[in-house]
Amino acid sequence: MHVTFFVLLGSSMARFVQRHGGEAHAPWVIALAVVLAALYVAGLYVTGPGRAAPAIPQLPPGARVPRPSARRLVWLGAVVVVWAVLVVLAPSFAWVAVPLFYAALRTLPPLAAYVLVAVLTVFVISAQLTLARRFDLDLVVGPAAVATFATAIFMYMQRQAARQRALIDDLVRTRRELAATERREGTLAERQRLSMEIHDSLAQGLSSQRMLLQAAERTWDADPAKARGHVRTAASIAEHNLTEARRFVHDLAPADLAEGGLPEALRALAAREGDERLTVRVHIDDPTGAPLPDLVQSALLRIAQGALANVREHAGATTAALTLTTLDDQVVLDVADDGCGFDPVTLPDAPTGVRGHGIPAIRARVRQLGGTLTIESAPGEGAVLTAAIPLERPSLPLEQPQ
Question: Which residue, among 322, 310, 400, 304, has the nearest Cα to 347 in the 3D structure?
Answer without folding.
Answer: 310
